[in-house]
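Q: Got a minute? One more chain.
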Amino acid sequence: MKSIINRRIIENTQKFKETLVHLKQLTDKISHRDFSTIVEELQERVTTPFTFVIVGEVKAGKSSFVNALLDADKEVCKVAASPMTDTIQQILHANEEKTVIVNDRFKKIYLDVDILKEISIVDTPGTNTIVDHHQDITERFIPFSDLIVFVFEAKNPYRQSAWEFFDYINAEWRRKIIFVLQQKDLMEPADLVTNIEGVRSHAIEKGIQDPNVYAVSAKQEQNGDKENSGFVELRAYLDANITGGQAPKLKLENNIETATNINGQIFQNIDIRARQYDADLEFRKEIKTELQDQSERSFAQARQLVDVLSASYQRITNEKIEKINEELSFGKVLKRSFKAIMSSEVSLKEWLSKEAKDLEHQLNIELKDKLNTGIVDLADQIQNMIRMIEMKIKTSQTILTSSNEIFSDVARERSSILRDLQNSFKDFIQKSENFYDENTQDSTGNLAPNLAAGGGIAIVGVILTAVTNGALFDITGGILTTLGVLFAGVSLGWQRNKLSRSFRKEMKTGRVKLEKEVQGKLDNYINSIKAKIEQIFVDLDTYLQNEENDLTDLRELNQLVTKQLNSIK
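A: Always. Here it is, folded:
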C-alpha cells in the first residue's frame, strides 16, 4: 500500500509541475512580480525536503528552539541577548557542513544531521523586530512553507504583533501551524497550563480546529533534561505526522494549496476586471443606443420639417396655378389682350411675369418662416443628443480601482482613457468649428466668424438655418428661372393647357427637389455630428477590444490551472 501511495504522490507531483508551468504563464501575463516569484520558488522547491518555517517575536527563543530540535553538538543558530537573526536562515542536510550566503537577506546552512534528510528548517527574523524589512522577508518565505512552527515566549504568548502575523499566515496562505511556548522553565506549572489553554482558545477563536500547542524548554533539552523539556511530545507529533513518511504527501498538499491560493486570488481579480469590462461595454452600448435613438429623433424632426415645407410649397403653388388657370380662360385672355391694345393695362406676358415674382415672394417668405420655426426644434433635438451623451460619459461606473492588487495598471489606463474622453467631449461641444463640415463651410461662408463667436452647440440652429436657406434659394430660384422662360414664350394665342401642364410639371419637379435637397442637407448634417461624436470614442473602443482579448486569454489560463489543480486534489 505504501508503494502505491508513493507512486501516486510521484505521479501527482509531476502533474503539479506541469500545472506550475501554466500558473507561471498566468502570473507573467498579469505582470504580478510577487506571484511570479512565488511560483518560480514553488517550481524549484516542489521536490525539495519538507520545510519547517520557525516564526515568532524577537527573543521568543526561536533560535534556541531550532538548536534544541536539531540536537546537534554545536550552536547552529546563534543565540544572544540582542536579536541575532537578521536574515532568513535555511538549514538543510549535507554530508559536508558549510554555509552559503545567498544574499544579504538569506543564507543556507548545510549540516550532517539525520532529521534534515527529511526536513529543512527555516529560522526567520522576529515579527516585532525594529530592523528594516525583517517582517517583509519573513512574509515572503511563508508561501513556501510546509509547516509553520509559531514560537511564543511562554511567559507572554499574547503579544499583538505575533497574533497579527498569525492572522496574515492563516488568512492569506492557510498553512498548517503548530504552536510552541518556549522557555517553559521560566514559568510556574499552573501559570504555564493557563497560557497553554489561552493560546489554544485564541487559536480556536481564529478558526484553527483542534490546535496543537506544545510547551518546551530548549535550555532543559540541551542540558540533558529531556524528560521535562517537552521535546519528546513534540518529536512524537512530528514523527507521526511528518517525518514518519507523511512529509511528501503533506508537502504536495501544501504546494497545491499555495498554487490554489494564488490562482484563486487571480480569479477574484480577473472577475473584478471582467465586471468592469462588462460595465464599460454596457456603457459603450448605451452611448451607441443613445446616439442612435437621438439621431433617429433628429432625422424624424428633419423629415417633419421637410413635410411642413413641402405642404406649404404645395399649397402656395396650387393656389397660384388655380389663379393662372382662371386668368388664362379664353374670354379673359381676349379681354386682357383687347384692353392692352386700347389702354395702358398690362399685357399677358407682363401679367405672367408679375405672377412669377409674386410666387417667388410667397415661397421665400412662407418657406423661410416655416424653416426657421422648424430649425429651432431640430437644433434643440441635436443639442439634446449631445447633452445626453455628455451625461452618460459623466456617470460611467468604476469597479476596478487603482488600488487593485493585480490590475492597478489596467485601472489607471482605463481612468486615463475616460478622463481623455470627458475632456475631448467637453472640447467638442465648446468649439464651433466642430459643428461645421465642408458643405456648411461653403454655405455659411462669410457668417463663419460671427458664428464661431457663439461657441459650441449654441450655433447649431444658426448653421442649419444658413444651410437650408441656401437650399431653398437654389430650389425656388431654379424654379422661377424656368417659369420665367416658360412665361416669356406665352403669346396672345390661347396656350392655356400647354402653360398649365408645364407649370404643374415644374411645380412638381420643384417640390421633389425641395424635399430631396433640404432632407439631404439636414440628414448629412446630423450624420456629420454623429460621426464626429463616434470618433471621440475610438480610444475607448480600442481599449475595450484589447480588454476582451486579454480577459479571454486570462480566463482560459486561469480555468486551465483550476481544472488541473482540482484533478490533482
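A: Confidence is low (pLDDT under 50) at residues 80-84, 443-453.
Q: Perfect, thanks.
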